[in-house]
User: What shape does this take?
Amino acid sequence: MIKRLLLTSMLLGGLAASAQTWTMQNVGFISAGAYPFDISVPDANSAWCVAYDGSGAAANLQEFSRTIDGGTTWTAGLVTTGTNLAFSCISAIDADTAYAMMYDADAGAGGGIFKTTDGGANWAQIAVGLIFDGNSFPNVVHFFDAQNGFAMGDPNGGYFEIYTTNDFGTSWNRVPTGSIPAPLAGEYGIVNDFDVVGQTIWFGTNKGRVFKSDDGGLNWTAVSVPASASRTISAIGFRDANTGLCISTPTSGTATAYTSTDGGATWTLLSPAGPMFLSEVDNIPGTNVWVSCGASTVGRGSSYSTDDGASWVGIDTSGQGTMDGYTEVGFLDINTGYAGGFAVDQLTDGVYKWDAGILSAKDLS
Assistant: This one.
């Protein structure tokens, strides 16, 4: 099953007035209608993004794009796998090395981790037969540094499939069932739905729970976000070890936001002032600035908050590409970040570079 909360209504709408905070760039995807599904920014010069089909055809895409000049130019390529595979997420180490998690979108199970060390010219699946199998649904891969990483998939064999590596992805150890809370009936993870601060990891599930590890993935706890048992934690982010935001999304209806001040042990419903968009929320590392974005008919655009989500200042209200809204954001620091949008004309748009000029010294204090 495809578990990302893809809002097909993103495709509706037209051009809108644009702010200068985002500079439109050509993502270069091969397929018209593709959009950046995940963005990884390892340093000030390089960034990677992977594609999802936003045309409505639900095609499986293996396309990625990369910049090595701070976003001035982007070059697209293909992860040379079977056409049955689609992206869960990407974790980039630098301009040359990246790991892509992919799932079997046709079979609904299977997939694995693919690695490149030459800027995407060649990709190879790693740890075949050691990590994930034909019954797996891989959701997340993340590397804390070049050597150490973790990966997460849906329950397989009665418990969540979580692995750690400390040798550059050569070998992986599955976290034992006793170190992970048992899944609820019908519970699974969400592709690309996680955040990391230091060695602390959080990920959300379709049953309104947030899983947390304080030790790089070796041991886990889980808590339920209030009133979310039948809702999906569709986005989650943390500013530091304690302060976080998450978005709880029902199958139909209105998404809501929650805040935590104790590392995710408890969550409180947020009633924000101003335009908080509920497709994605992300903290800019090293600052108190949060950015939210939206790409649905009920909330297209972007905004920022400097008080942990209590109030939001609108950046724009529709996005600025040939199709409205932003699908994803990713930041390295206050000066380096990108948003993804629909690339109906892949020679013109699809990715947007952040300009921190909208923020005042007070915002950053």
The first helix runs from residue 361 to 364.
